[in-house]
Amino acid sequence: MNTVSTVQPTTNSPTFGEVVANHARERPHSVAMRFGNRMTSFAELDRLSTRIANALLRRLEPGDRVAYLGKNSDVAVALTIGVAKAGMVLVPIIWRLATDEIAYIVADSGAKLLFVDEAMAPHALALPTLPVGIVQADGPIANREWLGFQEWLSNANDDLPAFAVVPDDILLQIYTSGTTGRPKGAMLSHANATRYRQYIDESDLDWLKGAPGDRALLAMPFGHIAGVGQALLILLSAEEMIIHSEFDPGAVLDAIETHGLKRLFLVPAALQMLLSHPKAATTDFSSLTYFSYGASPIPVPLLEAGMARLGCGFFQVYGMTETWGGVVALPPEDHDPARRHLLAAAGKPMPGVKIRIRDGDGNILEAGETGEVEIRSPSNMKGYWRQEEATRSTLSEDGWLRTGDAGKIDEDGYLYIQDRIKDMIITGAENVYPAEVESAIFGHPDVADVAVIGVPDAKWGEAVKAIIVPAPGTQPNPADIISFARGKIAGYKCPKSIDFVDALPRNPSGKILRRELREPFWAGFERKVN
Predict the structure, then answer these.
(1) Considering the domain boundaries, does residue 438 fall inside one?
(2) Is 466 within 8 Å of 481 (Cβ atoms)?
(3) pLDDT of residue 1
């Protein structure tokens, strides 16, 4: 069963360099970004990003990868646009990753230049190998000949580079957690966002549209599609971007009042922290028109509490890095207490998007039948960097993307996600694959066998749980095992709890039956995944 939008874009999609240049012509003095006490107009952002492009082109070529390791900042956003104008590809790296994970992404991407902010300098210093040249985003670092950002930028002119960047050129390479322990670089083009946005702009769905001059908050991590991807979408709408280096619930509540935010996107775990903060009881939310959420499971009681306190229109988005974020949405009108059953739905396809459900034999299924969710959208990625086999298994020749999620579409066209075929765990909007965590645990001498699953968590949506078969003659200490894993993988990927069993359930071919392990923990929950 397919659900198809009939809206068609009427103009050619621009590149992000053109987007910023157009804003600079039309609204040169309007504020593009606020970061702390710094304000940057669209004219200033246009000039700065052109200088960054020319500085990059001193030593790099169009198509080269440029990595960024750091938190949100105005420099990070300007760098992204500068990379776009230089015809290069930005590789944003999640700052919470372990050093070995950062090193893998830097090496796999072939990044020729690595930008780091001051807080991340120790991680960069610990990398076993570095790309040619390190640029510190703010100030100098002792005992290392790194250029400060302004010093690196000096003498770069603000004349637009002479060569052409086209909409289908790759702009972002965002690494997603790998099912076999190694992440893959999803390649996203300018057009994946700008062409897709045209469908939305020409629809009548005002709740999906930002307007020039509106103020929007960037608080999600830059290494996520919800970070850098959202930043680019805010720029695309000519909204004023309020940038927080990271999510802080008190600061977000202050920003809502101080800046009169009209729109806010947060993952469910962040929404819960926001509502639990003491300031939430007295914050004036009247400026908020819409609140959007996604990226991880959300309990219905939390959703209802959020709607009651914020008092604005709520809508959910469902998507993935490979689709530049949301491609399915549950609109505000479906967040109605009288239609509570719809809160379990992911929603309907957004403009320009098609969805279908297929079984393991490739047959397209009818309404109500469960299979793998597939998406066809202008925002679908170009493929995985240097991963031809993975690309072929994910993207069909005619443009359908396999999500790895099991779901069904009802008679009214609503998509319901039933489970994750690939067993991915989403904890606080961070993607965690069991195989990666299991690999980190297996080397512990007290572990004979291990399976990792996601279980309900009131704060993070899901929490990582390890179920372990102890090695003969041992009495494992959960804290020791968690500490052992923490030395190999990021902290958020490590188990939050450990259960011990005599044997793990497996099918005849030896595959662990994760669904059987998860079942007792999820019994009674209305929503298992987002």
Answers:
(1) yes
(2) yes
(3) 39
CA 24 to each of CA 21, 34, 268, 456, 513: distance values in angstroms, whole numbers, following the listed order: 5, 16, 35, 47, 56
Average pLDDT, the chain: 89
491-495 LR contacts (CB < 8 Å, sep 24+): 491/96, 492/96, 492/427, 492/428, 492/430, 492/432, 493/430, 493/432, 493/436, 493/437, 493/440, 493/464, 494/437, 494/440, 494/464, 495/437, 495/441, 495/452, 495/464, 495/465, 495/466
Least Cα distance to 35 among 174, 172, 138 occurs for 138
Q: What are 302's two structure tokens?
A: 């939390």
- Choose among 250, 257, 209, 261: nearest CA to 233: 209
Q: What is the pLDDT of residues 62-102, one digit of tens each?
A: 999 999 999 999 999 999 999 999 999 999 999 988 888 89
Per-residue model confidence (pLDDT) at position 112: 93
**Could you read off the pLDDT of 291-323 as tens digits, one per residue?**
999 876 677 778 889 999 999 999 999 999 999
CB contact at 8 A, 485 and 494: yes
- Ranges of beta strands (E only) in 96-146 are 113-116, 134-136
At residue 139, the pLDDT reads 65
Q: Please state the three-class secondary structure of 429-484 as a single string.
A: CEEECHHHHHHHHHCCCCEEEEEEEEEEECCCEEEEEEEEEECCCCCCCHHHHHHH
Among residues 194, 224, 239, which one ends one of the domains?
A: 194
CA distance 493 to 382: 28
- Write the single-letter amino acid at 143: N
Cα separations in angstroms, 414 against 3, 102, 335, 342: 9, 39, 13, 8
Domain boundary among 194, 229, 261: 194
Q: What is the CATH number of the domain that holds 89?
A: 3.40.50.12780
Q: CA-CA distances (angstroms) from residue 508 to 445, 511, 512, 513?
A: 27, 8, 10, 10
> What CATH number is given to the structural domain containing 469?
3.30.300.30
The dihedral region occupied by 243, where left means phi > 0, alpha psi between -120 and 50, and beta the remainder, is beta
Which single residue is written with the structure tokens 């908050």? 217
For residue 438, give its domain range: 426-522
pTM across the whole model: 0.84
**Nearest CA to 15 among 78, 79, 69, 84?**
84
* Residue 483 to residue 464: CA distance in whole angstroms: 14
Q: What is the band of 3 on the pLDDT scale with cuts at 50, 70, 90?
A: very low
Burial class (CB within 10 angstroms; exposed 0-12, middle 13-18, buried 19+) of 496: middle
pLDDT-wise least confident of 54-58, 67-71, 159-163? 159-163
pLDDT computed for residue 81 by the predictor = 98
- 253: in domain: no
- Burial degree of 145 (CB within 10 A; 0-12, 13-18, 19+): exposed
In the chain, how many domains are there? 2
Paired tokens of 514: 């994760």
Distance in angstroms (rounded) separating the CA atoms of residues 318 and 418: 13
